[in-house]
Amino acid sequence: MGSSFDIDISALQKRLNTIRIGHPLKVLPQTDSTSEEIRRDLTLPEGTVVISDLQTHGRGRQGRTWHSESGTGLYLSILLKPHLPPENLHFITLMAGVATVSAIQQNGAKQARLKWPNDILLNGKKLSGILCEHIPGKAVIVGIGINMNQTQFPSDIQDIATSMKMETGNSINRADLILSLLKNLDCGYEEYLNGNKQSLLQKWTSNTDMFGKTVTVHQKGVSITGIAMSLDSDGRLILQTSDGETHILGSGELLT
Fold it and tell me: Does the pLDDT of residue 233 top 60, yes or no?
């Protein structure tokens, strides 16, 4: 175990003040993917959190790889088992986004903002990504990656990625960030289970600056360009094109 592995699980557990999230808490020096670690045993209790110092095959959306080097980032996954209709499950992505951006702000990067549907940007560059995987009838696995103390990135992503340290000039305490994130996720998930969608939508909206801007969304092989207006009551993106037509998008990739 290298010196960069600074996650003290006993100390974390003593400071963890949550109802559901982080019970149990599993910390690894290395794994292929924290989400795959959970997927291998879905009998684990709801609220199980797996954290790894290093991922050899971290995953993002659209099958992309998430750059997951040792000692500089936060890589974790959470096992959830909500007994709610499938049409409500995309709210988990919104909930996780609010919890993550709030934790980042609480730990020094106050200008972090949400980008629909599941990215967090800081000064226009990608700081964090969230991947929610629904396993029908069984579970939802929420994977979160946060660029924390990196000072450089591989050449293929150096123009689009950033870290909390690069933007703030300060080293981030990983344990503090973990505790903030798990507490926020715990509160957000309880709110989700209680059906408080309006509060969640308000929090998401207050943490983005994309509304009112012209964006392009790629969905099912088609690109649609228009003004991002808001999220509707079901958490879908409302996009108004130049011909005045309104498009309601439940998923997609925001290109600009």
Answer: yes
